[in-house]
Amino acid sequence: MSEKEKSSSVKTIKVVGNSDAVSSLLKLLLSLVMVFVTYNSFSNFHAIHLLKQIDLGDMLHWAYLLIFIGGWLLVLVGVYKNLQKIGVAALIIISVLIIGGLIQRDAISPEDTDMLVNLGELATALIIYIGLSWPEIRRKLFGVRTIDDDDGEP
Fold first, then answer.
1. Structure confidence at residue 125 (pLDDT)
2. What is the total count of domains within the chain?
3. pLDDT tens digits, residue range 100-129?
């Protein structure tokens, strides 16, 4: 095997530096924006309120609707791709248990629906963030690094 063939079959390990912090911050921001744009109890400026008033004859409303649905599809596909069904189910169960524990310890009242909605929104944003960031989290926890082929073979 020639020197050129040996160098083309060598795999390289990419180690990402400071871009991990920026990437994580952007994913956290994306998850919070997606959840609070969909619904928030602070104001009437959220997608559910706007979708109730949508005029299907207006192209701007169609564009908004397509962007909204497309954004959620991208987020959900990314989370499902990284966590699969078991991971998503585990995070939902953990979130429900934490909120239930807060209710049981009288940290929040079960009658305070605004607080419960806000905690549910934060839990949803956290699930999205963990789902989108799972490869980086797994690499940091378990020392797994991604390996890419230089020769372009799968």
1. 92
2. 1
3. 998 999 998 989 888 888 898 899 999 999
Mutual angle of helices 19-38 and 113-142, in 10-degree steps: 160
Question: H or E stretch including 126?
Answer: helix 113-142
Show the tokens assigned to 30: 């994306």
Q: Which residues does residue 147 pair with via DSSP β-bridges, in sequence order? A: 13
Beta-bridge mates of residue 134: none
Q: Domain for residue 8, yes or no? A: no
Cα–Cα separations (whole angstroms), residue 115 to 33, 79, 89, 143, 152: 18, 25, 23, 38, 51
Q: What is the pLDDT of residue 129?
A: 92
9 within some domain = no
Q: What is the extent of the structural domain holding 47?
A: 19-144
Measured in whole angstroms, the distance separating CA 104 from the mean position of its chain's CA atoms is 28
The string of DSSP codes covering 56-104 is: TT-HHHHHHHHHHHHHHHHHHHHHHHHHHHHHHHHHHHHHHHHHHHHHH
**Residue 10 falls inside a structural domain:** no
Tokens 């564009």, located at residue: 63
Q: How far apart are CA 128 and CA 32, in angstroms?
A: 9
Residue 75 belongs to a domain = yes
